[in-house]
Amino acid sequence: MLCGVPLIGVRRGARLESIHAVAACASDVAGNVLLALGTIDEPVFLRSSAKPFITAAGVRAGTVERFGFDDRELAVMSASHSGEPFHIAAVRGILAKIGATADDLRCGVHSPLYAPAAAALRANGEAPSTLHHNCSGKHAGILALARVLGAPLEGYLDPGHPAQRAILALCERVSDDVFTADNLALDGCGIPVYATSLRNAARSFARLATLEQLDPRDAGALARVRAAIVAEPDYIAGTQRFDTDLVRAGNGRIVGKAGAEAVHACALLDGGIGLVLKVVDGAARAAPPAALALLRQLGALDEAQTRVLQAHARAVVSNAAGTVVGDVAALDLIAG
Description:
By secondary structure, the protein is an alpha+beta fold. Helix content is 41%, strand content 21%. The mean pLDDT is 97.
C-alpha cells in the first residue's frame, strides 16, 4: 500500500482543516536516493508525468525528420495543455503535417481548462472538440509515430499497436522496469498508462536531466524533447499553470510535468536529479505546494525563483462568491 508523510495543510481562516500526505523520491542517475518520503517502492501510475518519454518515442523513431516538427509542436505533444488558441493551433499543425484530422483523435472531449478559452467558445456558440482535450497533443504525436512506423492510425490506443509498443519499450528502458499486466491500465484519455515505483520514476527523470545511462538514440530523443519544453514553456501547460511557470522560473534548468491524481515529476538539470511525488489521496491542489516544498529542500530554487512561484506554493482557497477563505501550503509555511 502506498503511504506518505503529512506535508501539505489546508487552512480555513486561522484553523488547519485538512492535511495531505505525500510520498516522494529524489534520486541521482546512479540510483542514489537523495530524498524519500513514505513508500518509494510501491508502483504508482505516472499518468501524464510520463508524457516527455512518450514524445521521445516518436522523436526516436524519426517523426521530427519526417514531418519537421518544431519546438512548439514537440512541447504540446508532451503537454497537459489548457486548450488556449495557441495550443489548438499547434495541435492542428501536427495533424496537418501527418495528413490526419481531429476526427482521428480518440482522446475524448472536454472544455478548455483555461476558463477564458472555454468562455470564448461558449460566446461563439461553439462546442469543444477533441482538439481541446488536454491530451490532444500527445495523441497527435502518437499518430505521427504510427505514420513513421507504417502502422494504421485506427486502433492506436491498443497496447498491442506498434506505436504503443514502441512507447512502452522506451518507458521500460528509462525506468529499468518491465511493465507486467498488473502495472498497466488505461489513462483518462484512453492510452495505456504504466505504474512504476517512485524510486524508478525518480531515476528516469534523473536520466532526463543528465541524458546519461541511456541508449544513445533514447538520449538524443530525450534531449530534443527537453529542449523543446524549455524553449516553449507556454505549450507544456498554459497561462497561470504550475508547470509553465516552473519551467520559466527555472531558467531552463528544471523540467516539470504534472500527472493526474496528483503526481508530479521534475528533472533538475543542474544537480542531475529526478524528483517524483504522489499526493496519496490524489488531491491535485496539494501537488504544486508539495513539489515546491521538496524543490526547496533539495536546494533547487533560489529566493527569487521562490518568490516568482509563490502563488503555487501557497494557493488560495475561495468560496463560490470568490471570497478568499483560506490557503493550501506546506505545513512548515502554515506553521511559520
